[in-house]
């Protein structure tokens, strides 16, 4: 009796702490995964370190997650690196954050190129410091011929503003006679958003136990699976990503069998 119970448990649930890439269904890998990388400051505080130490540690996580994403065949990984709200943080912290793209790329670009990764940026670039933009543009340029994972950094991104910006551009095109009002539909709207080149995310991950969407991809996540973990972003690792994908696959399997 007991034996039967245990046997069933094992059969249903692979040990989720020891997932392997081969435990995933290769035919159902999410194409586009988006991540809210939360909890860097709290991770640092818990260790008695300054917040910026958490941000720096968070860059190491990006490296690992991008490698695994590429390995399992995710096509697009969109990372929320800096929101339009983040300007309200202390000036010192903002300045530090604005140095991170350059620092990250100085350390990682060669390896990203080796791994055939395409670096992209999504956000409103006017307000970004020149040295930040230059570093990102250089990486985008150097990787634009690559055909592997698209590593898409949301930098100075805010979804409500993205939607307003889209509406303004649509109105401009209507007034200029390029399109008619009746042509405005979901497909057209998609073409005016910053994500126009990408399919909607299949899976959105938020770390650090917060459950909010925080102005990230509001239009695009209408049908996206949401996955949350209590881990702080610097603690998130290969195992965490495999687990998120594994659960995503369980959900879509249940949905598919209805
Ligand atoms: C930032 C480190 C990771 C944790 C989350 C917040 C802090 C990588 C980048 C980056 C951005 C663009 C790019 C290459 C790298 C980054 C900011 C903050 C502002 F092309 N990490 N990271 N940018 N954090």
How would you sum up this structure, described in words?
The protein is 47% helix and 13% strand. Helix 2 packs across helix 3, helix 3 packs parallel to helix 4 and helix 4 packs parallel to helix 5 (130-143). The radius of gyration is 20 Å and the shape is globular. Residues 3-12 have low confidence and may be disordered. The chain starts with a helix and ends with a helix. The chain is of the alpha/beta class and 258 residues long. The longest helix has 24 residues, at 91-114. It contains eight helices and six strands, in the order H-E-H-H-E-H-E-H-E-H-H-E-E-H. It has a six-stranded parallel β-sheet with strand order 3-4-2-1-5-6, with helices on both faces. Strand 3, helix 5 and strand 4 form a beta-alpha-beta unit. Ligand V07 binds at residues 37, 40, 55, 58-59, 62, 81-82, 97, 100-101, 104-105, 119, 121, 136, 139, 153, 155, 233. Ligand V07 is lined by residues 37, 40, 55, 58-59, 62, 81-82, 97, 100-101, 104-105, 119, 121, 136, 139, 153, 155, 233.
Keywords:
about 260 residues; alpha/beta; 6-stranded parallel beta sheet; about 45% helix; disordered N terminus; binds ligand V07
One letter per element, helices H and strands E, the order comes to HEHHEHEHEHHEEH
**Proportion of beta-strand residues:** 5-15%
- Please identify the structural class as seen in this structure: alpha/beta
The N- to C-terminal Cα distance equals: 31 Å
Number of strands: 6
Mean pLDDT: 94
CA-based shape: globular
Number of helices: 8
Named once each, the bound ligands are:
ligand V07
Biggest sheet: strand arrangement: 3-4-2-1-5-6
Radius of gyration (CA) equals 20 Å
The biggest beta sheet reads:
6 strands, parallel
Helix content: 40-55%
Uncertain segments? 3-12
């Amino acid at each position: 009796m007991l034996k039967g119970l245990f046997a069933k448990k094992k059969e249903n649930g692979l040990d989720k702490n020891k997932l392997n890439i081969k435990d995933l269904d290769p035919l159902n890998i999410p194409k586009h995964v988006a991540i809210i990388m939360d909890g860097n400051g709290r991770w640092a505080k818990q260790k008695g370190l300054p917040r910026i130490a958490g941000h720096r540690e968070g860059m190491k996580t990006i490296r690992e997650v991008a490698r695994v994403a590429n390995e399992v065949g995710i096509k697009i990984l969109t990372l929320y690196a800096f929101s339009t709200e983040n300007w309200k943080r202390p000036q010192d912290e903002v300045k530090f954050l604005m140095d991170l793209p350059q620092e990250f790329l100085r350390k990682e670009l060669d390896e990203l190129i080796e791994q055939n990764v395409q670096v992209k940026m999504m956000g409103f670039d006017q307000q970004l410091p020149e040295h930040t933009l230059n570093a990102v543009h250089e990486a985008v340029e150097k990787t634009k011929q690559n055909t592997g994972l698209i590593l898409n950094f949301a930098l100075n991104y805010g979804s409500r503003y993205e939607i307003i910006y889209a509406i303004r551009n649509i109105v401009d095109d209507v007034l200029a006679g390029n399109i008619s009002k009746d042509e405005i539909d979901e497909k057209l709207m998609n073409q005016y958003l910053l994500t126009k080149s990408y399919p909607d995310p299949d899976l959105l991950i938020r770390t650090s136990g917060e459950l909010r969407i925080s102005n990230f991809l509001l239009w695009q996540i209408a049908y996206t699976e949401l996955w949350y973990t209590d881990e702080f972003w610097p603690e998130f690792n290969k195992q965490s990503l495999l687990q998120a994908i594994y659960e995503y696959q369980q959900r879509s399997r249940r949905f598919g069998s209805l």
